[in-house]
Specification:
The complex is a heterodimer of chains A (about 575) and B (about 80). Chain A is about 30% helix and about 25% strand. Chain A has about 575 residues and is of the alpha/beta class. In chain A, α8 crosses α9 and α16 packs across α17. By secondary structure, chain B is mainly α. In chain B, about 55% of the residues lie in helices and about 0% in strands. In chain B, α1 crosses α2. The longest helix of chain B has 15 residues. The chains are: A alpha/beta (about 575), B mainly alpha (about 80). At the A-B interface, α6, α10 and α17 of A face α2 and α3 of B.
Amino acid sequence: MNVPPAVLDHESLEASAPWHLSEALDLAAERSAGDSRFLGLELLDRRGATARAVSWHELRQRVRRRAAGLRDRGVRPGDRLALVLQTSVEFFELLLAASEVGAVPVPLYPPVRLGGPADYAARTCAMLAAVDACWLVTDARLRKRLRSVLEDVKELVVLDVDELEGSTEARGVARDPEDFALVQFSSGTTGSPRPVALTHRALLAQARILNSFWPDEADGPSHSGVSWLPLYHDMGLVGGLLPVLLRPSRLSLLSPESFVSRPALWLQTISRKRATVSAAPDFAYRLCVERVRDDQLEGVDLSTWRFALNGAEAVSSRTLQQFGERFAPWGLRPEALTPVYGLAEAALAVTFSAPETSFVARRFERSSLEAGTARPSADGVDIVSVGRPVPHFEVEIRDVSGKPAPEGCVGSVWARGPSLFAEYLGQPEATAATLQEGWMNTGDLGFFDDGELFLCGRDKDVLVLNGRNIDPTWVERAVAAAEGVLWGGVVAASWELGADDGERLVVLAERSLPAARPASEIVDDVRRAVLRETGLRAERVALFQPGDLPRTSSGKLRRQAAAEHYFSGRLEGTAE
Amino acid sequence: MTSTREEILAGVRQVAAEHLDHQGPLPLDAHLVEDLQLDSLQLMTLAAEVENHFRVLLEPEDEEAIATVRDLVDVVRHKKGGAS
C-alpha cells in the first residue's frame, strides 16, 4: 500500500502518483477492491444515521455513468460546470465526472433556507459570470430556489442531476495534471468574486501534504474523518475528500445544516465513528461551547479525536481554551486542538501547529504590533500561533518595501509551495498582484516568533466571518441604505487584534446631518439592513460625526485605519 | 392530524426558545429577519428544527413565501392538514 510517510520529503512528493483526480479515483477503486480499509464515503442524515455509503469502486462506476451523461449533453473539455448541490453523493459524482470529461467543476453555495440574504441571486450570477459558466448542475428542489438566478443568466444550460446518466463508452480525455481541476471562490461576493483556479497537481499535492500529518502506524488507529463543512469551501472539499481518496480511510459527511441546527451532532458523530480528524472554523467550536448540553453527550467519547483542526478564520485562544475545558470530561485531549492556517489560493493549508502538542498562545504589546514589531508583554493581546509551514511550503514575512523581514517584524505574509493556485480565472491583473515569482501574497499580516507564525491583521480588504471570506463593500452597501447614515461614510470590519471571541462583524458609520433621527433608531436600522441584505449579524454598530473616520486625501475612507483606530480606542463612536 | 394555529405557534415558540435562545414574545406578525433579527445560520436552524419538531418537510416554494412568524405557522399548519 502507498501509505504516506510521516515526513514528506521532496523526492517522495515528486515520485508519488497519481497527479490527476480521475487517476486518483481509479487507484482508490482498485485498492478498495482488495483492501477493506479503503472504505470510501458515507453520508449521514440529520440524526447522524448512515443514509448512504459508497465504496470508491461503486463511486467510480457512478462517476463513469455521470461522465457519459455529461458527454451526451455536450459538455466538452475546458467547460466550466457550476455545481449547486447539497452535501450528497451526487455532488462527488459530478465533481469527479467533470474531471473525467475534462470539464472544470465550480462548486457554488446552494441557496440558504427561509429566504436567506436578499442578494443571493445577484452574488450567484456574479460568480457564474466570473467563471464564464456554460453549465449548471442542480436538483429539482434547488432549481426552484434558483429561478431568479437562472432567469438572469441566459447562456447557461441547466442540467438536472437526476437526469444526468449516460452509457456511452468513455472516450479517452487526456489526463493532464496541469489542467484545472477545480475553481473555488476566495470571497463570496458581488463586488469582486475571485475564482481561484487550481490544477490537478496542486490539489493532489495538498492532499498528500495533509495526509503526511496523520500517517498510518502499524499499531495506531486507522484514520478516519468526519466533516459537516460545506463542499463549496476549501476546508470541506479539499480538506475533506482529497486526503481520503489517497489512503485507507473513510470520510463521514454531515450536512452543514445538520451541524448548525444541532452542534452536538458533530461531536456525537466523531465519537460514534471513532474519527481521528475533523476540522472546522473557530465559530463552530464556539457554537459547541455555547449550545451543546451535557444531556446530549451521554456516552460520547472524544478520545479518538487526534486532530481538531481550527482554521479558515482567526483562531481565538479563548475559544480553544473553553472548548478544551468544556469537552475534556468527554475524553477530548487538549493536544488535539490544532490551529491551522490556509487559504483557497493555496488549495488549503499553509501552516499547521505541531501535531499532538498543546496549542501555543502568546501575548504581545498592542502598540508595538501596530508599529510593526512583535514585543512580548504579559498584559498584551493574546494571539494563537498557527504553527509552522507545512511540508514543501515556505512562508516569508515581507516589509513594506517588499524585502524579507526578520523574525519579530510584522509584515505581509507570503507563501510558496506546490499547491498554489494557477490564476484567478480570467483576471490576469488580480493574479499578477497576488502571484509574484512563484510566491503568493496571502494578504494577511503576521510575524514569526520562535519559528511560529502569528497572524495579527490583514492588508487586504476582506472580512472573515463564520469561516467565509466576505467583501466589506457588500456590507457597506447594505448599511448605506439605512436612513440617517452618511453616503460613503461606512466601514465594515471583522478582525480585532487579540479579540476574545473570534471575528465578529463591526460596522462603523458616520451620521448624515442634520441628525434628525435618534441614534438608537439608526443603529437598529443598520443592523436590520445588514441582516436583510447579507444574512450577517452586525455584532457592534458605532456611529460617528461626519468626518470622524480617517480618509485618504481624495476623500475615500481608509478602512484599515478606521478599524484599527476604533479597536485600539483611539476613535470613539458617539453612539453604539 | 390537524393542529390549530395556537398549537403550532406554541411549537414554533418552543423551537425558538430551545434552539435560537429566543427569549421574549414571538408575535405572529414578527418578520423573521427584520424584527427577530435572525441571521442566515439561525434561519437554517429554524427551518431544520421546525421540520424536526412538526415532522414536516418544507419545500423550496413554501420557504420562499415565508417572511413572518405567521407565514411559517400557516405553512406548517397547511402541511399538518389544517385549513390555512
